[in-house]
Specification:
Elements lengths: L17 H8 L11 H11 L5 E5 L3 H9 L7 H12 L8 E6 L1 H4 L9 H7 L3 E5 L4 E3 L7 E3 L5 H11 L3 E8 L7 H20 L3 E8 L7 H21 L8 E2 L16 H15 L6 E4 L6 H11 L7 E6 L1 H11 L6 H19 L24
Parallel strand pairs: 1-2, 1-10, 2-3, 3-6, 6-7, 7-8, 8-9, 9-10
Antiparallel strand pairs: 4-5
Helix pairs in contact: 8-9, 9-10, 10-11, 11-12, 11-13, 12-13
Length: 383
């Protein structure tokens, strides 16, 4: 008799027979991470260090091209390299930034002086990270939702990235509240994140677990909280099923906010209250770091909301992993002109320091520019 092999997420919940249960009791399951376990814990703690957070510059070549086009530059490797060199060679960045998520192209690039970007980061005590997913595609059978591809070949890619110097990884999938979200989409997101996390740990990379709940929609903050709790309960169920070492992961959640088109904005205090409620209900204290994404908030909003969450003690390091909320002012200051590099780097330090203070709960918001107050939400945003 041929027995079908169960490999879907649903199979994990099927009750075993008495015979299989007895056999399973004799099986020793090796926790993900294996020989890398101590290093994974050390890496996660280094990234989740006081007053520091993550600079996310892992935009695909196409998305980086959109950023460059906003200041009149062509999407060429030379221009992408020049922009990322500006960011990564900023003197003093390591005081506020503990990790940088890179796109594959950037991981293997060097400065115009021939120094690898990996070494540039290491010299500032910044951990190099790498985006490992292969992007979003339509999810058949769903309500116009997406799933994240990239598990095929992931183990070998992670092994190569580790050799190149990367020490943590990022995988982004999304959940849309206006589309439901359907149970299928939530389960697919959670299962994919868990499989990725186990594979990354098995190859020495701390996985950043990122199910982004998109800002799209006109729903209130209560609905966002409801969905966030459902998503994170599924994520941690499957992380546990895949024997992921919780002390060796980092989370990259969305803040619990109203939909971007909701008629009323929420205060930083309300956002902090709802976000921390969700985290305390769903995230084990073993997880070392919560590195929030900005998700289209303005630079100022992202910083103020983070600061509000650090007004009392948390069981985790509550910090940031921002892309647009660290880069927007930088790009507009640079404008692709060599003579503006120093000013652009100063703009990066201003934003990095502001979020460092927010991580410590001591940001005041004084002296912020009008540019920092501009929202960056884009409906249906992809990258």
């Amino acid at each position: 008799m041929v027995t079908a092999k169960l490999s879907s997420p649903a199979a994990a919940r099927l009750a075993p027979s008495a015979g299989s249960a007895r056999r399973a009791s004799r099986v020793r399951v090796r926790a993900s991470g294996g020989s890398y376990a101590d290093e994974l814990v050390s890496t996660a703690k280094t990234v989740a260090s006081p007053g520091r957070g993550i600079l996310a510059i892992d935009e695909s070549s196409a998305t980086c091209g959109k950023r460059l086009a906003s200041i009149g530059l062509d999407n060429t490797e030379v221009n992408r390299q020049a922009y990322r060199q500006l960011l990564l060679t900023t003197a003093g960045l390591g005081e506020y930034i503990s990790g940088a998520i890179l796109f594959e192209e950037t991981l293997y690039q060097s400065t115009t002086d021939g120094k690898t970007f990996v070494d540039v980061l290491k010299d500032q005590n910044i951990m190099p990270g790498i985006k490992v997913d292969k992007g979003l595609v339509p999810l058949p059978g769903s309500n116009n939702e997406s799933w994240c591809q990239g598990l095929d070949g992931l183990a070998s890619r992670c092994a190569e990235y580790y050799k190149q110097g990367a020490r943590f990884a990022k995988w982004r999938t999304v959940v849309s509240i206006p589309c439901g979200p359907t149970a299928l989409a939530v389960k697919e997101a959670a299962w994919g994140l868990a499989r990725y996390a186990a594979i990354a740990q098995d190859n020495g990379l701390v996985p950043i677990v990122e199910p982004e709940i998109l800002l799209d929609g006109d729903h209130g903050i209560e609905r966002t909280l409801e969905v966030a709790e459902k998503v994170w309960s599924e994520v941690f169920f499957y992380l546990a099923e895949n024997n992921v070492l919780f002390e060796g992961i980092l989370l990259k959640p969305s803040m619990v906010t109203p939909g971007a088109e909701h008629k009323e904005k929420a205060s930083p205090e309300a956002i902090a209250k709802n976000t921390l409620t969700m985290l305390r209900r769903r995230v084990p204290p073993a997880v070392p770091g919560i590195m929030f994404l900005s998700g289209g908030q303005s630079e100022l909003e992202a910083t103020m909301n983070l600061n509000a969450m650090n007004q009392s003690a948390n069981p985790w390091h509550v910090s940031f992993s921002y892309a647009r909320a660290l880069q927007n002012s930088v790009l507009k200051t640079w404008q692709g002109q060599p003579e503006n590099i120093e000013a652009a780097q100063k703009a990066l330090l201003v934003r990095a320091k502001a979020n460092s203070l927010a991580q410590l709960g001591s940001y005041t918001g004084e002296g912020e520019s009008d540019e920092a107050k501009k929202g960056m939400f884009q409906k249906g945003y992809t990258y």
